[in-house]
Amino acid sequence: MSPLLEVKNLVKEYPVKRNLIGRVSESRRAVEDVSFTLDEGRTLAVVGESGAGKSSVARMVLRLIDPTAGEIWFKGTEIAGLSRSRFQQYRRDIQMVFQDPYSSLQPLMTVGDSVAEPLLLHTDLDRAARRKKAEELLEQVGLSRRLAGRRPHELSGGMLQRVSIARALSVEPSLVVCDEPVAALDVSIRAQVINLLMDIQAERGLSYLFISHDLHLVRHIADDVVIMKQGRVKEYGECERVFTAPEDPYAKELLGASLKPVTVDAAPAI
Ligand SMILES: Nc1ncnc2c1ncn2[C@@H]1O[C@H](COP(=O)(O)OP(=O)(O)OP(=O)(O)O)[C@@H](O)[C@H]1O
Ligand SMILES: [Mg+2]
Question: Is the pTM of this model over 0.85?
Fold first, then answer.
């Protein structure tokens, strides 16, 4: 069986300078030869310091930006070659949850309409059916259906991230790309949102491409992990193996801190 997602030798160059006639005169390689696979029902984490290229990889998988080189295969087909209608299906099958729920939800739309928007784009459901589904989804992510008529500014960050998750789930995707989904939230509610994501995965068998700085979190939730530095993959493998026996010097250094047992005494004073 082919993997759900397979990324082969992905490269992304961004233009950094253009000449007088608008031609790119200088570019920067943000992603260099990145490859990995993600199987159905699993979580693959991508970690690395700021600027490592993690979000660029996520954005290429989502096709929000085009790769400079390399291939992205989904369910056994290369997506660059998809027909318009198959590409629409791909857009439906891969949904996303971003870091900042305040900017990823439309401020003037009601929460219910935001959750239902992918249904409007991708299904034939009428308005009443979309509304009903949106209310059910709100309940599935632990929110009251009465919130459907509210606007984003009336909700807390944690509630908004639940709304983003409900929206992503609305079209029943196979893969959800999560780019630092709890980094902007209060520490006290991060675990709730992570537990929600894990419960949803257990129920629905979907896969996550999970981008995070938080190594403890990654070890807790991921099956496999890619460690990136300056656009390149430094280490890639099954999470437990990478965390307990990293091979690459940079991976060792990065994971060093998280390998030490955490004790109350060792916790830094605040
Ligand atoms: N649109 C863009 N134009 C030019 N350079 C970009 C663009 N987007 C990202 N970059 C550069 O590409 C590199 C990788 O950026 P990316 O956002 O993928 O990193 P990241 O690992 O997600 O970082 P962070 O942890 O800070 O989110 C960085 O040097 C960044 O400045
Ligand atoms: Mg990023």
Answer: yes
Extents of the domains making up the chain: 41-64+88-254
Distance (Å, whole) CA 66 – CA 57: 10
- CA–CA separation, 211 vs 213, rounded Å? 7
Q: Which SS3 state, helix, strand or coil, does residue 178 take?
A: strand
**What per-residue confidence (pLDDT) applies to 269?**
45
Low-confidence ranges of the chain (pLDDT < 50): 262, 264-270
pLDDT of residue 261: 55
pLDDT tens digits, residue range 65-77?
999 999 999 999 9
Instruction: Answer positive or negative: Cα dihedral of 191, 158, 43, 71.
Output: negative
What does the pLDDT read at residue 259? 60
Out of 11, 13, 26, 28, give the residue to mutate to test ligand 1, the one with the largest number of ligand atoms within 8 Å of its CB: 28
Determine the distance separating the centroid of ligand 1 and the alpha carbon of 57, expressed in angstroms.
10
Q: Which superfamily is assigned to 41-64+88-254 in CATH?
A: P-loop containing nucleotide triphosphate hydrolases (3.40.50.300)
Return the ligand 1 atom nearest residue 211 CA. Answer: 22
- Pick from 101, 92, 54, 12: which is nearest to 218 by CA? 54
